[in-house]
Amino acid sequence: MRVEDRKIIDAIMVELNHFKFSRSSISYQYLIDAIHIVVKSPISIKNFNKSIYGPIAKKYETKPENVQWSLSKLIDLMYSNTPSDVIYDYFRFFMDEKPTLKFFIITVARNVYDNQVGYG
Fold first, then answer.
1. Does residue 67 come out as left (phi exceeding 0), alpha (psi in the -120 to 50 range) or beta?
2. Average pLDDT over residues 62-72
3. What 3-state class would DSSP assign to 118?
4. Can you tell me the distance from the alpha carbon of 91 to that of 87, in angstroms, rounded to the nearest whole number?
5. What is the Cα–Cα distance from 60 to 30, expressed in whole angstroms?
6. Which H or E run includes 79?
């Protein structure tokens, strides 16, 4: 793995540490991969199925809809297990709003991208 990619993945892990995830699940790895794709290629958000879920599905020999479903369930569990004030502080939401999967991925990717010193 390239040094640049390792730095991005390390930064993603730091961001994800704000939230309560089951880090041993394959879904968590999908999430890291999805955020990594968006950090490396922000244009990928125009078509999540083709540009994000598709490459992850290919990598793990599954279907894009399985990747999307797994990620949706992972975000649902995170929302249930993470204190609402943590979610509010990170996303600037009202306490009862759950971030969508796409919003979660895009927001975390933007924070990683913005915090990467010397990225590019």
1. alpha
2. 98
3. coil
4. 6
5. 9
6. helix 64-81
DSSP sequence for 87-103: HHHHH---TTPPPPHHH
Residue 25 sits at φ, ψ, to 5 deg, of: -85, 155
- CB contact at 8 A, 44 and 38: yes
Maximum CA pair distance of the chain? 40
Half-sphere exposure for 75 (CA within 13 Å, toward CB): 21
Q: How large is the C-alpha radius of gyration of the chain?
A: 14
Residue type, position 78, single letter:
M
Q: Which residue has the higher pLDDT, 117 or 3?
A: 3
Contacts (Cβ under 8 Å, ≥6 apart) of 119 = 4, 7, 8, 113
Kindly indicate the confidence band of residue 94, based on its pLDDT and cuts at 50, 70 and 90: low
pTM: 0.92
Which residues lie below 8 Å from residue 16, measured CB to CB, with a gap of 6+?
28, 31, 32, 108
